[in-house]
């Protein structure tokens, strides 16, 4: 993932958009797999490794979208405005789901955690508005901001959970599915 991320800047615009679409899809796939792995991972070192991989996948996906946005206006671009908007909206939706999952435990974790969760929700709302208005670069900036805030919420939640000697969990209350408990592990703060 890191190798792909490094080379995304050096691809010709005509090819870059196509590669970015593939990279984004694969990084999204890896994120989903890592989310499942994180739920069953035991041991602090293994959990940290999973979270580092998850962060790398997230960053690679964001970089792919960034390449799509940059190449959108290139004469030889093979990406459409609708594709970029749909990709951004998908990223926004995924982050929004993560914030909702974390909100259930954020209030109990610490005094600063609910503030970070609220800031993440605000950044998500701003990203939605910017994406709808076609300001994709600023929408991507808000996606990056909300992703960092989610990472901060996770870290604060885990930190507070460790202080209480319990594993924090987030409860997803989706009306179409039975209630699910999700373990929350710390994510790498590095980007």
Describe this entry's structure for a reader.
The chain has 191 residues and is mostly helical. It is built from 6 helices and 2 strands; from the N terminus they run ααααααββ. The chain has helices at residues 2-7, 13-40, 44-72, 81-109, 113-132, 136-163; strands at 169-172, 180-183. Strands 1-2 form a two-stranded antiparallel sheet. Helix 4 runs parallel beside helix 6. It starts with a helix and ends in an 8-residue tail after the last strand.
Care to give the gist of this entry?
With 191 residues, the protein is mainly α. It contains 6 helices and 2 strands. Strand 1 and strand 2 form a beta hairpin.
Tell me the Rg in angstroms: 17 Å
Q: Please give the share of residues in helix.
A: over 70%
Q: Give the averaged pLDDT, no decimals.
A: 74
**What sequence of helices (H) and strands (E) makes up the elements?**
HHHHHHEE
Uncertain spans: 165-191
Gross geometry: globular
For the largest sheet, list the strands in their spatial order: 1-2
Beta-strand residue percentage: under 5%
List keywords for this structure.
191 residues, globular, two-stranded antiparallel ribbon, disordered C terminus, mainly alpha, 2 strands, single chain
Secondary structure: elements and pairs:
Layout: H1 2-7, H2 13-40, H3 44-72, H4 81-109, H5 113-132, H6 136-163, E1 169-172, E2 180-183
Antiparallel strand pairs: 1-2
Helix pairs in contact: 2-3, 3-4, 3-6, 4-5, 4-6, 5-6
């Amino acid at each position: 993932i890191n190798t792909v991320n490094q080379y995304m800047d050096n691809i010709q615009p005509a090819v870059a958009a196509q590669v970015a679409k593939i990279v984004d899809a694969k990084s999204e796939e890896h994120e989903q797999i890592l989310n499942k792995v994180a739920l069953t991972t035991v041991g602090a070192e293994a959990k940290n490794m999973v979270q580092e991989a998850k962060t790398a996948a997230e960053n690679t996906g964001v970089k792919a979208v960034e390449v799509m946005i940059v190449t959108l206006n290139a004469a030889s671009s093979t990406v459409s405005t609708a594709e970029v908007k749909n990709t951004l909206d998908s990223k926004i939706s995924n982050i929004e789901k993560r914030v909702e999952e974390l909100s259930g435990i954020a209030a109990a974790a610490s005094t600063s955690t609910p503030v970070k969760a609220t800031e993440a929700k605000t950044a998500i709302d701003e990203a939605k508005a910017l994406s709808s208005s076609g300001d994709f670069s600023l929408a991507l900036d808000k996606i990056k901001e909300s992703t960092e805030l989610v990472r901060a919420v996770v870290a604060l939640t885990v930190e507070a959970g460790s202080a209480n000697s319990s594993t924090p969990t987030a409860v997803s209350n989706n009306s179409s599915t039975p209630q699910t408990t999700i373990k929350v592990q710390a994510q790498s703060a590095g980007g």
